[in-house]
Amino acid sequence: MSLKKFINQAVSPWMQSKGPDDDIVLSSRIRLARNLSDFTFPVIASEQQSKQALEFIKEKLEGKTYHTMGTFDLVTMADLKPIEKEVLVEKHLISPNLAEDANHGAVLINENESVSIMINEEDHLRIQCLFPGFQLNEALTLANGIDDWIEEKFDYAFDENRGYLTCCPTNVGTGLRASVMMHLPALMITQRMNRIAPAINQFGLVVRGIYGEGSQALGNIFQISNQMTLGKTEEDIVEDLRGVTMQLIQQEKAARKDLLEMNKLQLEDRVYRSYGTLSYSRIIPSKEAARCLSDVRLGIDLGLIKGLSQNILNELMILTQPGFLQHYFQETLGPNERDVRRATLIRERLHSEDFKKPMD
């Protein structure tokens, strides 16, 4: 298959659709960890055992179609250049762990990139379903449907008392990781997030950065997910996350309202300074670009900036990441070169839009 359709476009097709509360909840994700009963688990498997598992899964799933999700194409890590792997990580189609695999890791991706099935990552299979906005239940329904479809072809490693068996103890049980990606700029500006994050942990949830465990919250974007899967049903896990997400949405909306009512001039100044930085900078590091993009998106959501769409900001958040930036310009770039090219790309993209100042 051609890799071009997965790496040439910064925004996956599913991201271009609208979703509930998508001004704050960028996406909802359900991931299921599964292992095959007849194969050694990936973390202790030999090269030959990993190869056999990959070939077995490939035979059963490559090119197959699940309902309206389209055909699943296989991308093997051994066939990818480092930058191509980085692009897939930046699009959330594979994990950083899978990207490090040089031999028998692979991923199956459907046509609109809303479903990816990682092979030989930490577990034999990692089924991931992504939806725009706040759609956890919809993502769970799809993930369960795909899981049942796959289970018709394989025997899963399952224990009657413990549930699905996984390499990491925190995934044993349902094997389910539910998460939402949230844009929370007002909570960060008002410093309320410092108090909220520890409270979230008390609900058995964890707050991470944009690329999950060990990553930074670039552009005020946070990933909220469950920590444990044992002892709870899938529905309970999702409902716990739904409840906390709804609280965060309300808190973010309240913080945005307070900023507009009490500090509107300062907020406008911040938003327009960031827009000016993005529009005219000749050098811009990734952290600064993410912060400015976050400010401008907040300005769009609050009606302070008109004539600029959210999709452009979504595109630039991915397009200006190191891997995609180098893929876009078709050359290996050092950190300083990336900062220059990033600024150029953002200027060109923003200036191509019919930007209008808000009416006084």
UniProtKB/TrEMBL annotation:
SUPFAM superfamilies: Glutamine synthetase/guanido kinase. CDD domains: bacterial_phosphagen_kinase. Its EC number is 2.7.14.1. ATP binds at residues 27-31, 92, 126, 177-181, 208-213. Keywords: Allosteric enzyme, ATP-binding, Kinase, Nucleotide-binding, Transferase. Transmembrane segments: none annotated. Residues 24-255 form the Phosphagen kinase C-terminal domain. Appears to be allosterically activated by the binding of pArg-containing polypeptides to the pArg-binding pocket localized in the C-terminal domain of McsB. InterPro entries: Arg_Kinase, ATP-guanido_PTrfase, ATP-guanido_PTrfase_AS, ATP-guanido_PTrfase_cat, Gln_synth/guanido_kin_cat_dom. It is an enzyme of class 2 (transferase). A motif (RDXXRA motif of the pArg binding pocket involved in allosteric regulation) lies at residues 338-343. One of its GO terms (molecular function) is protein arginine kinase activity. It catalyses: L-arginyl-[protein] + ATP = N(omega)-phospho-L-arginyl-[protein] + ADP + H(+). Belongs to the ATP:guanido phosphotransferase family. Catalyzes the specific phosphorylation of arginine residues in proteins. HAMAP family: Prot_Arg_kinase. This is Protein-arginine kinase. It comes from Scopulibacillus daqui. The gene is mcsB.
